[in-house]
Amino acid sequence: FIECFSSGPAIDYLMERVKNNEALPDIMLVDLVMPGIDGYELVRRLKKEPRCSKIKFISMSLYPEISIKDQVKKAGFDAFFSKPITKLELMKVAASVLEDGHPAARVIPQYKLSEASCRDVRVLVAEDNEINMNLVKIFLHRLGCIIDEAVNGKVVLEKLKKDNYDIVLMDIMMPVMGGYEASEKIRSEISKDIPIIALTAAAMKEDEEKCFASGMNDFISKPINMDELKEKILKWSKK
């Protein structure tokens, strides 16, 4: 049974049920960023009521897990996950907090919830746009990947000569050296095997063909979808 409320009505609803000695929910999913009372304050207030002590509070946020772990724990949450999340993952989070004897405020990375894991896949991300780079890094972090970054194709070549990676995510349009040229040089000078996945806003057939002609193995269209990114990482990390 599911009920949805904004932050203020949620407190009023629960306090009314406490006052009337009515049954309370077993689990509350609480968004951390809400108008008026945010998720932290909502849980702090409810935790002061003894009858609410048995409720399992799960926070959800767009922020990476590690960046707000201490805040979530201090507020009194039982678990935390980053959005977006699949139905199966949500069910696993709910089941985990209902287990007896679990520690409070467990951060639950997405890779621990997934049936197939991208954990510890080493990914080199080539992207010159800071916003796009941060978005890709957030997604990869949730998948459990080990991330390194490059601002252009020239930096990609330098890093590949010094270190080992499982996959390269390659933006097409970058200053100094773009994705096509960098991919051609990777194939001719460094490796014919490392998977290269293009990050491109172009969706035309000729753009797809140009990606493959330059030596890339696959492509992801922008704006990037986390499910698609996970699918590509799983596919090419097992090659």
Structural class, please?
A: alpha/beta
Tertiary shape: elongated
Radius of gyration: 22 Å
Query: pLDDT below 50 for ≥5 consecutive residues: which ranges?
Result: none
Main beta sheet strand tally, sense and closure: 5 strands, parallel
Give the H and E element order.
HEHEHEHEHEHEHEHEHEH
- Placed side by side, the strands forming the largest sheet appear as 6-5-7-8-9
Helix content: 40-55%
Quote the distance from N terminus to C terminus: 43 Å
- Count of runs of 4 or more consecutive helical residues: 10
- Fraction in beta strands: 15-25%
List how many beta strands DSSP finds: 9
* Mean model confidence by pLDDT: 84
Overview of the molecule:
By secondary structure, the chain is an alpha/beta fold. 42% of the residues lie in helices and 17% in strands. It is built from ten helices and nine strands. Strands 6-5-7-8-9 form a five-stranded parallel beta sheet, with helices on both faces. β3, α4 and β4 form a beta-alpha-beta unit. α1 runs parallel beside α2 and α7 runs parallel beside α8. The longest helix is centred in the middle third of the chain and has 14 residues. The chain is elongated, with a radius of gyration of 22 Å. It starts with 6 loop residues before the first helix and ends with a helix. The mean pLDDT is 84.
